[in-house]
Amino acid sequence: MALFTEAAVKANLRNRDGRRVFYLGREDRLTPGARDYLRSNHIEILPAGQAKPQRYQLLSGGEIQDKPEHMTHLDAQTLVPKNHPRIIFRGQVDCLEAELLLAQRQAHTEGYGAMVRELGDALEFSRQALRHDVLNEPMAAFPLGGLTEAELRARSHTPQKYYGQPHFMPDYTQCWTLLAVNRARTTARQAELACYEAFRDREGRCSRPDLLQGFNRLSSFLWILEIRLASGKEKG
Asked: Which of 13, 71, 151, 174 could pair with 178 in a Cys bridge, judged by C-beta atoms 3.0 to 4.6 Å apart?
């Protein structure tokens, strides 16, 4: 039995008579997010037994019919080794989403209601970034906490001016929410580096500056949340 997440569903969509469909095995299951994605995009779920044999493309230019265990989907038609840089990048984003969920839970527990919502912005950005990678679509600037790019830069560079709190080094005496957000921020940095590795060319240029810039802004945003918590002025 396989459990298909939204990302796995997107990677396994097929074309049938000019429309997108998803084939689901009798014992396979969908996460709620995956089912909502299929429903909202009007993608029909069909029994796996109705699927026609599919030949997968390889980056080398060849084709294979059966998917080996050491390979996974880069997109619906293309298979790559599981250590391909873009697959590693997607794994890092998955880790980031897990850390953001834990930070949200901790913020909720400690009563930081506004921060729960703002961490939700960060989580939604991460999910949208993954979606735009899988679908090879450009990603527009994503609002984080209602702040523009210039506002994010100003607040993260000069926090004393905006929050009365200078830059600091986190320590164990600070609240659990701050420590959870700090961990999410470091994971966002790892995702940013993985993004660069996934999309850089031989000259070091990045073919997805939209995603790279987005993760850079995300880590700045998470640092701002830490600053606010450290200031002691955040409700909680």
From this structure: 174
- Residue 66's pLDDT is 74
DSSP 68-137: -TTEEESSSSEEEETT-HHHHHHHHHHHHHHHHHHHHHHHHHTT-HHHHHHHHHHHHHHHHHHHHHHTT-
Per-residue pLDDT of 25-53, as tens digits, reads: 888 889 999 999 999 999 999 988 787 65
| CB 218 within 8 Å of CB 190 | no
pLDDT tens digits for 150-171?
A: 999 999 999 999 999 999 999 9
Q: Which two tokens stand for residue 148?
A: 């523009």
Instruction: Give the other-Cβ count within 10 Å of 137's Cβ.
Output: 11
What is the Cα 142 distance to its own chain's centre?
Answer: 13
